[in-house]
Amino acid sequence: MSAPVHHPLFARFYTHVLERNEPAELRAMREELLDGVSGRVIELGAGSGANFPHYPPSVTEVVAVEPEAYLREQAQAAGAHAPVPVTVLDGVADALPLEDASCDAAVACLVLCTVPDQARALAELRRVLKPGGELRYLEHVRAGTPRMARAQRFVDRTFWPRAFGGCHTARATVAAIEAAGFALERHRDLRPESLPSFLPVAPQAIGLARRP
User: Fold this and answer.
1) pTM of the model
2) Which domain holds residue 28?
3) Residue 9 pLDDT more than 90?
């Protein structure tokens, strides 16, 4: 199991700076990510609950797993005002506190960059999903251009994970989703206009993959 997650400075920076100043473009991406999702949903690394207002009424419950104490506290407050029922749990990605095949859908939103082991996290998501369940993802990913990919690897080796809550920018996340046994049904590469193109988190992807 992963070590306890404790990023007090980044958690407060995210909540009070990044989330409060979130661009409309990212809110629209959250809407696209969650459009049409239904049933019982597990959200991995829910942070301070930024996705909660975007869940449609077809969702019967969101089980939000967040290991960072300050962010979990913020998520619990946000969940009280969400349009759908939200349960916030303490837990880590490689040992989710849910039973096998207990969820209809899973959401990974800007979180697979931070988990210690993507393969284990994705295996856990597959475990808790029902057969035929879907994984909705919105993640920044390894760049398709050699120059940016080199820059991503450099910042990952140096300062980026320590400065940004364990985030790694050079992960081939979509390939990892497929390697975990999910079948891609919908995928789109993104370059958000609200992010400077030189940032290592500018290459992103959004899509839906299904558990066989």
Assistant:
1) 0.94
2) 8-210
3) no
